[in-house]
Amino acid sequence: MDTEVITVRTGSQATVVDITDRASAFVRGRGDGLLHVFVPHATAGIAIIETGAGSDDDLLTALDSVLPADGRWRHRHGSPGHGRDHVVPAFVTPYASLPVIGGRIALGTWQSICLVDTNGDNPTRQVRFSFLPG
Amino acid sequence: MDTEVITVRTGSQATVVDITDRASAFVRGRGDGLLHVFVPHATAGIAIIETGAGSDDDLLTALDSVLPADGRWRHRHGSPGHGRDHVVPAFVTPYASLPVIGGRIALGTWQSICLVDTNGDNPTRQVRFSFLPG
Amino acid sequence: MDTEVITVRTGSQATVVDITDRASAFVRGRGDGLLHVFVPHATAGIAIIETGAGSDDDLLTALDSVLPADGRWRHRHGSPGHGRDHVVPAFVTPYASLPVIGGRIALGTWQSICLVDTNGDNPTRQVRFSFLPG
Predict the structure, then answer these.
(1) Which residues of A lie inside 8 Å of B (Cβ-Cβ)?
(2) What is the ipTM score, two decimals?
(3) Pick from A49, A111, A134: which is nearest to B40 by CB?
């Protein structure tokens, strides 16, 4: 298994960052197998969605509605409402796995691999790519 | 890695389609390993749930509640409310992975592999099965 | 692929059980590869979240809000509101996959592997660990 950790700039606001190009570069030339994408953080996730047509913002809106950043959470470290960031990974998992065929991720036309980070307290994040040859 | 793309009829309404039998047929005789199920579409997901006792409809009801098909979404292509279909895969991921033991998927008694498609604009969908030998 | 089924006590209330230590013991000494965690039950899931600072309870609160244990569900077997337990796995999937490097799960500092069980009717659960060498 080949594995590599990249750094992704996420800034100080909740954000969805498209990392498809970096994942594609990681698997290029590798043949067939499984790409595994993993975020080693407790307040971030990986989503496979369309980007560039509003759905990335829509996902953040949905998370604000499903997991409001208010005072309901027991976890009280960090900024007010931060407790909800710790629940995000239960719904938007910190890993994804995708088939690779001939060194290319077999994504559909409108699918992108995205790092979802609702926690503005960490301006950079790590993402681990791993490739399991088939 | 052996891989195969099947076509699944999803019709013009939101639907949950049980594809367990087709997945089971794909892994039959393969020994031990990992089955990977992937939908190369931006408005569909894979869920492992019970079917035949109402939970498939319950899932669609839950998605209507969590991600209402109304005017709140920035993504405005397609039918009204279609923007929410693009957020579905962040919650119901377009992939799943399952252990295979002796050519059989090690599912529990009440678990089925389901294609979840809230988008009635595409009457057929593709699903990619891949098998990683262990 | 090496695989092993463990039994986890979940009791008669909705609960989040940290199984990181048992997963770590399973992969110890195995080198590099992928850990697959799977629950063969239709009313339980696996979440990668922080434990011990309230987020485990916060997850149960969030699930009560997103999928209320009330009379709205078509699935009507078991206790009142039990239908929602069958929708939980569509959101908190019954599987997870994690990279293993040098026999250690490459989790971040605050990440734990958790069995999420909202169904108090089953006091014990099975979890299958599988390891795919890379």
Answers:
(1) 32-34, 47-50, 53-55, 57-59, 61-62, 66, 91-93, 96-99, 101, 106-111, 116, 132-134
(2) 0.96
(3) A111
Residue indicated by tokens 């309404």: B13
Q: Are C112 and C59 in contact (CB under 8 A)?
A: no
| CA distance linking residue C33 with residue C113, whole number of Å | 17
The two three-digit tokens of residue B14, written as one number:
């939101």
- What confidence category does residue A81 fall into, taking pLDDT thresholds of 50, 70 and 90? confident
Look over chain A and give the mean of its residue pLDDT values, rounded to a whole number.
96
Per-residue DSSP letter, A126: E
A47 neighbourhood in chain B, CB within 8 Å:
89-90, 93
Number of domains in chain A: 1
Q: Say which CATH number the domain at C35 has.
A: 2.60.120.460
Please, are residues C37 and C96 in contact by the beta-carbon 8 Å criterion?
yes
Residue B102: domain span: 2-133
pTM exceeds 0.95: yes
CA atoms within 13 A on the CB side of B69: 18
CB nearest B36 (choices: A34, A53, A66): A34
Across the interface, whether the CB atoms of B59 and C87 are under 8 A apart is answered: yes
Q: List, for residues B30-86, the tens digit of each pLDDT value.
A: 999 999 999 999 999 999 999 999 999 999 999 999 999 999 999 878 777 899 999
Which residue has tokens 């790519």? Answer: A129
Judge contact between B41 and B48, C-beta under 8 A. Answer: no
Residue with tokens 């920035």: B74
Tokens of C94: 């019954």
Asked if C59 and C13 count as a contact pair (C-beta separation under 8 A), the reply is no
List the structure tokens of C78.
């078991």
Contacts of A97 in chain C (CB under 8 A): 97
Interface of C with B (CB under 8 A): 1-3, 34, 36, 38-42, 66-67, 72-77, 83-84, 86-87, 89-91, 93-95, 97, 128, 130, 132-133
Q: Are strands C104-105 and C95-101 parallel, antiparallel or unpaired?
A: antiparallel
